[in-house]
Structure formats: structure tokens, C-alpha cells
From TrEMBL:
Keyword Methyltransferase among UniProt keywords: yes
SMART domains registered for this protein in UniProt: HTH_MARR
UniProt key word Transferase: yes
HTH marR-type domain sequence ranges: 1-136
Record-level GO BP terms: methylation
Identification of the protein by name: Methyltransferase domain-containing protein
Pfam families linked to this entry: MarR (PF01047), Methyltransf_11 (PF08241)
Length: 411
């Protein structure tokens, strides 16, 4: 059997089993409709407000309200004021709702583990990697983007299978057997996305006041949605650490780090005076202005003595560094012996699905344009590894993930 048909058969089986797990097979009435299940699962795994549901399910606001009313009446969810926005109402699962999700997941994980037990550990990993590549889903964010992409274009991607011969409607197997009887290529080679040459972006930062405000709005949204990855920084931070942030922009990344650490101090080195004014304003909103100072300057020549900081980090500014090798050398200089650093940024070889998801999250034409040029100016894992070869860190590693790159190291 050809690969397409084998996959169709396997996924059909999985789909049937999952429907049985959710109680929707053989005409049985399930207490929860597919839309209600999606609301319950989304509220369990992420923050969701009443105003989000209609757009998420692509239904009318009244239909979304009806679904939430039903879930609330049956005791699966409750409404509560959003602590971050008093004008918004959040949908939160009750203990009954959480127990339903966990009970359903017990069955799903049991089914998956039963099937995986037929594979060796290496085969299990290979199977998971292939499924991620096939679906484009690597984590919760790419799951959301893939679902959105399918809703927008999925029904357009069809293979013509409705065919007639002498007035008779052909059966599925007849059409499929004809279509896939001969492979179009007998020697199938792995396809790699073509990585375009790097196009450097501005090295002056964002100076325009209007664009600065738009960028602040976008970064605030990323923070509110939990997309500022500070958890690992917090985990590796010691109480009392004195840290340097390179290119803080409006400051949210470093301020979130300060907020979740103890007795720490932060210095933000920023090339844009407009961004500094905004970051200082935001630090007052966080009530952290006594623990952070922002200094205008260029990372190519940092205005700090050597061996000043315990820790250095940056998120989203690497692609703007005019001479990254020089900046990493400066990081080495200002770190104390044993000090560590973490630099995260976009990658130029983003998958098309993730690129479109991230682009769609940008608000305003200037921010969208800035994102596009930032991706063009970003690096690949191999480029950064070559760039870091001659810097005298005790250890250094470039980690690639679906959304970007992280460089970590120690002096």
C-alpha cells in the first residue's frame, strides 16, 4: 500500500479511537460537544477570556455564550474577573472540569503508550520526531498556529477523488489505486527549506516614537500570553545576582526576570533613547525601579568595567548586533569568572507555519515589516556556532528550537 493510503488508514483508526475515548462513537450522546470540549481543554491549558471564544471556534458570540453557559451549568467551568483586565471575564475550569480532562487524558496516554510499547526506544523517538515534522506541531504555540492555518486553508487542499466512469461514480479504492499506483519519484529525498542569505537589519534600534509604542504593545501582549521565556533564566539565577540585559527594548523580559528572582539587580544596555524612556516607565509600573537602571550605549563597546556582572542575557536583539563576535567578546569581558550568559533570538530558517503564526501575531504594518526584516537578519545555528569558535568561554552551546535559537555559555 502506498504511503498516503497507509497514513490515511492509520490516522482513520486513531481518529476513531479518539472519538470513542471522547464518547462520540456509535451515535452515543456525549455530554460535551466538540466546541465545548475545545473550550474546556483550552481553559485548562491556557488563559482564555469570554471575548476570545467566538474567534477561537469561528462561531457567533451568542453561540460561544451558549457553550459556556452549558459548561457552567453542568459544573465544568466557572466565570471569574480577569485580574489583569477588570473589564474582561475569564473562563476557568472547575475541579469537575479538570477531573474530566485528566480522566480523558488517562485514556489517550494509555492508548498511545500501548502502541509505542511495540517500538524500541529509538523507534519511539524517531516516530515522535516524524509526527512533529509531518504535522508541524512541536509545542502548544505551533499547535495553535497549525490549527489556525488548517481552519483558513485546510479545506482548500483537496485531492480530486470524485470521479465517474461511464456514468458510474467510482469507489474510493479505485481512484486511489489509480492515483498512487506508481510513485512519481522512486527515490524520495528529504526536502530542506531553502535558507535565504542573511540581510542585515538596522544597528540603531527602534528610535521612532510611534513604532516604539507599537512595539511596546506587541511585547506587552507576548508577556500577557506567557510567551516571554524567562523560566530557565529564573531557574539558574542565584539570589543577589547582578545581571546585564543587552537590548532590553521596553524592558518586559528583564522586568519579568527581576519580578521572579530575589535580591537581584539589573542593568539594561539599550541603544535607543526612546526605548529607555519607555522601559523606565514600565519599571515604575512593576514597582521595580529601585532594582534596575537603563543605560544608553552600544554593545560593541560596553561602558562597564571588566568582571562587573554575574550574569548577562538578551532576548530578540542578536540579529541587530552590527558585529556579534565583538559583542560576545564584550560579554566575556564584563562577566565575572564563573559568570554565565544566555542570548535568545529568532532564527532565519523558521518553518513556514511558524513564520506565518508569528507574523500574524504582529499588530500594525510597521511591526509586521520589522518582524520580516528581523527574520531576514537572524542567524542559523551553524552560523552562530562558527561565529563563537574563537571566543574564550569555558563552555558555549547553541540550541535550536522551532521559534529561534538560544546561545548559552560560561566564563
Amino acid at each position: 500500500m502506498d504511503p498516503t493510503s497507509r497514513l490515511r488508514l492509520s490516522l482513520g483508526f486513531v481518529s476513531t479511537i479518539v472519538s470513542m475515548i471522547f464518547g462520540t462513537n456509535k451515535g452515543r450522546k456525549n455530554l460535551l460537544s466538540p466546541g465545548a470540549i475545545e473550550i474546556l481543554y483550552t481553559s485548562y491549558f491556557s488563559r482564555i477570556c469570554m471575548g476570545d471564544i467566538a474567534g477561537m471556534l469561528e462561531i457567533s458570540p451568542s453561540s460561544a455564550t451558549d457553550l459556556v453557559n452549558y459548561l457552567e451549568r453542568e459544573g465544568y467551568v466557572k466565570r471569574a474577573p480577569d485580574l489583569e483586565n477588570r473589564r474582561s471575564i475569564q473562563v476557568i475550569p472547575t475541579e469537575k472540569g479538570e477531573e474530566w480532562v485528566l480522566s480523558t487524558e488517562e485514556k489517550i496516554y494509555g492508548f498511545l503508550e500501548s502502541g509505542l510499547s511495540r517500538l524500541t526506544p529509538d523507534e519511539q523517538k524517531q516516530f515522535a520526531d516524524l509526527c512533529a515534522r509531518f504535522s508541524g506541531v512541536h509545542d502548544t504555540a505551533s499547535f495553535t498556529s497549525s490549527m489556525r492555518s488548517f481552519r483558513e486553508t485546510g479545506t482548500q487542499n483537496r485531492i480530486p477523488l470524485i470521479q465517474r466512469r461511464n456514468g458510474r461514480l467510482l469507489r474510493l479504492e479505485e481512484v486511489v489505486d489509480t492515483r498512487y499506483a506508481h510513485h512519481r519519484e522512486t527515490d524520495i529525498k528529504e526536502e530542506h527549506m531553502t535558507v535565504k542569505p542573511r540581510i542585515p537589519e538596522t544597528s540603531d534600534g527602534i528610535q521612532d516614537e510611534i513604532t516604539v509604542e507599537q512595539y511596546d504593545h506587541m511585547q506587552r501582549g507576548l508577556r500577557d500570553d506567557g510567551h516571554l521565556p524567562v523560566e530557565e533564566l529564573v531557574r539558574t539565577t542565584k539570589p543577589g545576582d547582578n545581571a546585564l540585559e543587552i537590548g532590553p527594548g521596553p524592558g518586559y523580559f528583564g522586568l519579568e526576570w527581576l519580578k521572579h528572582t530575589t535580591r537581584t539587580l539589573l542593568t539594561g544596555l539599550e541603544i535607543s533613547s526612546a526605548m529607555i524612556r519607555l522601559a523606565e516607565k514600565n519599571s515604575h509600573e512593576y514597582n521595580l525601579s529601585e532594582r534596575v537602571i537603563y543605560k544608553e550605549g552600544n554593545a560593541l563597546s560596553m561602558p562597564f568595567p571588566q568582571k562587573t556582572f554575574d550574569f548577562a542575557f538578551s532576548n530578540g536583539s542578536l540579529h541587530e548586533w552590527e558585529d556579534p563576535e565583538k559583542v560576545f567578546s564584550e560579554i566575556f569581558r564584563v562577566l565575572k569568572p564563573g559568570g554565565t550568559f544566555s542570548v535568545s533570538d529568532l532564527r532565519r530558517d523558521l518553518s513556514p507555519e511558524i513564520y506565518q503564526f508569528m507574523l500574524g501575531s504582529c499588530q500594525g504594518p510597521e511591526i509586521k515589516k520589522g518582524f520580516q526584516t528581523s527574520v531576514q537578519a537572524a542567524y542559523t545555528k551553524e552560523e552562530l556556532e562558527n561565529l563563537l569558535q574563537d571566543i574564550s568561554f569555558t563552555q558555549v552551546q547553541v540550541i535550536a528550537h522551532p521559534y529561534g535559537l538560544v546561545v548559552i555559555g560560561e566564563k
